[in-house]
Amino acid sequence: IFYFEVKTMRKTLSGKNTLNNFLKEHAYSLSQISSRESNLTIHPLRNIMDMSILGGWCSIEPPGEFQVVFDTGSSDLWVPPVFCQSLACATKSMFIHLRSSTFWHTQKFFNIKYNTGRMKGLLVYDTIGDLVSTDQPFCISLAEVGFDGIPFDGDLGLNYPNMSFSGAIPIFDNLKNEGAISEPVFAFYLSKDKQEGSVVMFGGVDHRYYKGELNWVPLIQAGGWSVHMDRISMKRKIIACSGGCEALVDTGTALIKGPRRLVNNIQKLMGATPRGSKHYVSCSAVNTLPSIIFTINGISYPVPARAYILKDSRSHCYTTFKENTVRTSREIWILGDVFLRLYFSVFDRRNDRIGLARAV
Asked: From which domain of life does this come (predicted)?
């Protein structure tokens, strides 16, 4: 299994000794999905501001460090090149292609649009550090809009190949095709106490990161990490998703997002007041507001107030429900880090399903 440790911005471990100690202290025993012959590789990652997953290090030949988001909502890997002139690139680590003897570029240009911004890119090929030994297609950003001041360099997409804007083979598929992982699965554990850091693992599952059994949920269709959700309720009353809806399990989204009308209704039920881009509540509401329950495939997944209410830099409390700005004809919810910190998640490409269990 390839393990990636996620380190927070506030409690950052450093140096090889820390990683070696981590390996010694965690003699991983693998679940039924895993192979005993799996190799273990660990790389440091960082959580961004304790909210937005997952700042990580992705080595590209020549050796370089890039802080990327490990993102199940997209499929492309991209980093900024040294000649990127967008303001968003000014503070980022940039890929210096002239130092690589294995780099080559195509003539394929494309655009990617995210909830938070967009980028224009060029499809290129190079060797990706310790992960994929052969040519890996990825993208270099020629222009970025909406990513100013965001503390990551690029994005590493973990969605299905058909979701790729560039048409490139995603890095996970290359790992799978080259036999670098024993099973076509990956899993996320997002630490709540931030002491030990979070982990993303490729090729298997470590059962010590969750309690009880994994509840498997079939995808709505192969080709995207979306599942059917039965309802969303509070105090035994349905407050959204009343006739069933779609839920995207997205590690690249920090919050819980849904349609404007339904999100506004939930904010009113919480007594939240809009101010700027957030909805605020009294911090004492953490002790009085009930859990919001997401029912998926007949299983209830409660999210308590202490999870869906966070403090900003001024110690004011705000809710983590937000409007999804992407308009669709269907009711779609995005379950981001707020949900995933409570529930260990497994993404199974072989069987086109997602496994959920209460995180330790």
From this structure: Eukaryota
d(CA 62, CA 47): 25
Distances (CA, A) of 250 to 69, 161, 214, 336: 11, 16, 18, 5
Q: How far apart are CA 183 and CA 349, in angstroms?
A: 9
Rounded to whole angstroms, the Cα distance separating 47 from 27 reads 23
- Is 268 strand, coil or helix? helix
Cβ 23 vs Cβ 40: under 8 Å: yes
Give the total number of structural domains in the chain: 2
**Residues of the domain holding 119:** 16-202
CATH of the domain at 53: 2.40.70.10
Answer with the one of 202, 237, 268 that is the final residue of a domain. Answer: 202
Amino acid at 43: H
pLDDT band at 198 (very low <50, low <70, confident <90, very high): confident
Whether this prediction's pTM lies above 0.70 is answered by: yes
The reply to whether 214 and 312 lie within a common domain is yes
Are the C-beta atoms of residues 69 and 252 closer than 8 Å to each other?
yes
- Read off the tokens for 60: 């590209």
Distances from the Cα of 67 to the Cαs of 64, 102, 161, 189, in angstroms? 10, 22, 22, 18
Alpha-carbon span 162 to 167, nearest angstrom: 8
Catalytic-role residue among 76, 250, 337, 348: 250
Active site residue 71: yes
H/E element holding 174? Answer: helix 171-177
CA atoms within 13 A on the CB side of 231: 11
Which is the catalytic residue, given 71, 173, 206, 230? 71
Report pLDDT digits (tens) over 5-40.
443 322 332 333 332 333 333 333 223 333 334 443
Task: Pull the structure tokens for residue 131.
Answer: 């992960």
Catalytic residue at 250? Answer: yes
